[in-house]
Design brief:
With 476 residues, the protein is an alpha/beta fold. It contains 14 helices and twelve strands. Among the domains are: 175 residues, Rossmann fold; 140 residues. Helix 10 runs antiparallel to helix 13, helix 11 packs antiparallel against helix 12 and helix 12 runs antiparallel to helix 13. Bound molecules: zinc ion (4 copies). Pfam families: C1_1 (PF00130), DAGK_cat (PF00781).
Length: 476
């Protein structure tokens, strides 16, 4: 936390000093580091082999890969990778209409293995001497003899949509931002790397991104912070931002984007470095990237990527005295099962509607179901089944009771001797037929009722079984 606060203070302080940064970018000075070389490599100053004196004497520029002996470095021309229009110096080229075009920036010798000339398609470069040329932007190689016939404008290589051509960064406005060309080109990518991330893996990423893009669009996060970079490119829309670090830095960059009111134009991607990359993990980008070799492919992939909106939340925390956790929802008296089953039995056996048994079964089951619904999941589903089964049972019981009452009213009447035999017979016959039919109906419905009662019993058991898992203490 301390180091972040320090970095933030430093960033705010340095943020105003845009002029200093622009002057540094335009100076053409190389950025040396002690380098080792597996294959024969030659000094770009004295043209002698570098290997002869051992690695302790070899330097390479981390931006343009210019090579030099330690003793020769001070005599190296300020020809480092261009970043602004001013840094092109005498190399500015204009077309017939006076438009500035991006020329190739040639670096002599030390070409990759099996390099081919882009003009004559024959092998070029040599392991014996400093020979032939390679453009540090488009990475095309040409023979020294073929160079004059090669086209003058540079394509900026495969990731041209991401690269900000140095010819476009010509002046900084009064608001400390690059004045954009009209019309603006495709959305450039600006990169923030926390060089301390991932066991200092960040240093490699920082170096590699500066080689692949314009050094002016790559920013060291732990030093300058995100504000300077975002402000410089605030007139580029849409602006794609890549953060190479953990969650903390991503949050820092997003916060600055909000503060500068750039959230409508900025699209952010994360390249997770080191640990603490929950955001990248959650979004399916992987936990950590430790290989700086494939960044070229990655940049091209970002150019084709689609965007998704992401909510950012502010979480407010309040301190308060530690209290016991709130009690769990009141567990049911699971022993109620017995009384409910008794109610059920009463309902089945009573010839008349047992309103007391019905009411207490309905009330008891409803109480249990409410507990189940509160517990959620399987208990809630079981509770739903129980409510439905009880409702169907009581409905069926009410119908049956109704039929039973009608049945009784149709019982054969006592016959007397003085009644007319004919009429009596007919009345008796009709009565008997009707009663048999109703009684048959009653039996069928009785069977159905038994089925309903069984459903209630099963639903009750299932709910209680689920609840005993939720409230084991009650049943132990
Ligand atoms: Zn030398
Ligand atoms: Zn350089
Ligand atoms: Zn080129
Ligand atoms: Zn050639």
């Amino acid at each position: 936390m301390e180091s972040w606060a320090g970095a933030l203070r430093g960033a705010l302080h340095r943020g105003a000093d845009v002029a200093d940064l622009v002057a540094r970018l335009s100076s053409g000075d190389h950025h040396w580091y002690a380098a080792t070389h597996a294959r024969p490599t030659f000094c770009n100053v004295c043209r002698e082999p570098l290997g002869a004196l051992g690695t302790a004497h070899a330097l390479a520029c981390e931006l343009c890969k210019f090579k030099a002996h330690k003793r020769c470095a001070s005599r190296a021309p300020p020809s480092c990778k261009w970043s602004t229009l001013a840094s092109l110096g005498p190399h500015v080229v204009e077309d017939a209409e006076g438009n500035i075009i991006m020329p190739h920036q040639w670096l002599e010798g030390n070409l990759p293995v099996a390099a081919k000339c882009d003009v004559c398609d024959k092998t070029c470069g040599s392991v014996l001497r400093l020979q032939d040329f390679r453009c540090v932007w488009c990475r095309r190689c040409v023979h020294a003899a073929c160079k004059p016939t090669w086209r003058a404008s540079c394509s900026l290589g495969p990731a041209r949509a991401s690269v900000v051509p140095p010819t476009r960064l010509h002046s900084v406005g009064p608001d400390d931002a690059w004045v954009p060309d009209r019309p603006p080109n495709a959305s450039p990518l600006i990169v923030f790397v926390n060089s301390r991330s991932g066991d200092n893996q960040g240093v490699k990423f920082l170096r590699r991104f500066k080689q692949l893009l314009n050094p002016a669009q790559v920013f060291e996060l732990s030093g300058a912070g995100p504000r300077l970079g975002l402000r410089l490119f605030r007139h580029f829309a849409p602006l794609r931002v890549l953060v190479c670090s953990g969650d903390g830095s991503v949050g820092w960059v997003l916060q600055e984007v909000d503060k500068l009111d750039m959230h409508r134009q900025v699209q952010t991607a994360v390249l997770p470095l080191g640990t603490g990359n929950d955001l990248a993990r959650v979004l399916g980008w992987g936990a950590s990237c430790d290989d700086a070799a494939n960044l070229q492919v990655l940049i091209e992939r970002y150019e084709r990527a689609s965007t998704k909106m992401l909510d950012r939340w502010s979480i407010m925390t309040f301190e308060r005295a530690l209290t016991a956790p709130p009690p769990p929802p009141v567990p049911p008296d699971l022993l109620e099962e017995d009384s409910l089953l008794r109610n059920l039995q009463d309902i089945m056996q009573a010839g008349e509607v047992s309103s007391i048994a019905s009411t207490s079964l309905r009330a008891g089951c409803s109480r249990l179901a409410a507990v189940g619904e509160r517990a959620g999941g399987g208990a809630a589903r079981a509770a739903h089944r129980l409510r439905r089964a009880v409702s169907l049972l009581l409905h069926a019981r009410a119908h049956l009771a109704h039929d039973h009452a009608r049945c009784k009213s149709w019982e054969p009447v006592e016959t007397t001797s003085d009644s007319e035999p004919e009429a009596q017979l007919v009345a008796e016959k009709g009565s008997i037929e009707k009663t048999e039919k109703e009684q048959l109906n009653w039996a069928v419905r009785g069977c159905a009722l038994a089925g309903r009662a069984d459903s209630v019993r099963r639903a009750l058991r299932s709910l209680l079984r689920t609840l005993t898992q939720v409230y084991p203490q009650v049943c132990s």
